[in-house]
Amino acid sequence: MTARRALIVRTVIATLLACALAGAGVGVLVLKSGWYNIGATRQHWQPVYSVLEQGMHESVRHHAREVRVPQALPASEAKARLLAGAALYRQHCVQCHGAPGVAQAAIGQSMQPIPGPLVDAAKRWQPNELYWITRHGIKMSGMPAWGHHLSEAQLWSLVAFLGHLPQLGAQDYAQLQAQAPQIAQLPQTTAGRAPFDGNSIARGKVALTQFACQACHLIPGITGSQVLVGPPLDQLAKRRYLAGRLPNTPEHLQQWIRDPQSVKVHTAMPNLGVDADDARDMAAYLLSLD
C-alpha cells in the first residue's frame, strides 16, 4: 500500500469514528435533556411509525413461517369454534381493538401506537401470522402474548373468529355475540397448550415474564426496572425457607407460585392463575439462579 493510499484509509477511518462519536454525543444529549416527549398524548413521528410498522410486519412474517394451520373442521365443529372465538374476542380483544358497531374502550382509544381495528385483520395477515401475533404478542406496542393464558384450541378459535370478522356488519356481530357462550362457560384450562421452546429452565424464564413477575421482583437474567415492591429473587436456591414458613424445595416453591394465600393468608403476593406446568418451569429457573 502506498503512503498516499494509507493516508486516505486512515482519514476515512478517522472521519467515520468522529461521526460515530458525534452521533453518540447527540444521542446522549437528547436522552439526558429529556427533550423527546414520550407522553402518549404525542404521536410518533410518521417516519418513525412507518419504519416500526414495516419492521413489525417483516418480523411477524419471518417468525410465523413455520406455524402450521390446522385442517378445516366439520361444519358443526367449525361453528362451535367460531362462537368460542367470539366469546374470547369479547373478553380479551374488544377493549383495545373494538368491533363492528362497538367502539374501543378508553384504554384502547388513548394508546400510542393505537391498537388498530381487527375488522380487516384477515385481509392483511395470514392465519399463521394471526396465530403467531396472538400467541407471542408484539413488544413495545401494548399487544400482550396470550400463549401462557389460552390453550391451543382457544388460540385457534380466536384466529377463526378473526378470519370471519371482515364478513360481519354491526348487526351480524351483535347477533353472533348473542349466540356466543359466556366466558365462564368456556374451558378455563390451558391443557393442550403448545409448548414453548427450550428446556424447563428456559421456559421458566419466559413464563416469569408472561406473569409479570418482574413488575414486583428483581430477577437476574430478566429485563426490568429497579423495582422494590417484592424481595429480589437472586440466590433463591440458597434460602432455607419460602415466605418465612415453608422449607425451600421445588414442590413448595411451585405451591407458593400457584397459590400464595394457601401458604401465607394475608400476603400481598397475588394468585396469578399459574398452571402446574408453568409453575414447575418457573421454579426451575428461580432455583437455577446463583
Tell me about this structure.
Helix content is about 50%, strand content about 0%. It is mostly helical and about 290 residues long. The termini are far apart. The chain has 2 domains: about 45-185, Cytochrome c-like domain (Cytochrome Bc1 Complex, Chain D, domain 2), CATH 1.10.760; about 200-285, Immunoglobulin-like. The model has no long low-confidence stretch (mean pLDDT about 90). A hairpin with a 3-residue loop joins strand 1 and strand 2 (about 245).
Question: Which features characterize this protein?
Answer:
2 domains; Cytochrome Bc1 Complex, Chain D, domain 2; Immunoglobulin-like
List the helices and strands and how they pair.
Layout: H1 3-33, H2 46-63, H3 75-92, H4 94-97, H5 106-109, H6 121-124, H7 127-136, H8 152-164, H9 170-179, H10 200-210, E1 241-242, E2 246-247, H11 250-258, H12 260-263, H13 276-287
Major β-sheet annotation: 2 strands, antiparallel
CATH topology of the largest domain: Cytochrome Bc1 Complex, Chain D, domain 2
Averaging pLDDT over every residue, what do you get?
89
User: What is the CA-atom radius of gyration, in angstroms?
Assistant: 24 Å
CATH structural class of the largest domain: Mainly Alpha
End-to-end Cα distance: 53 Å
Shape: globular
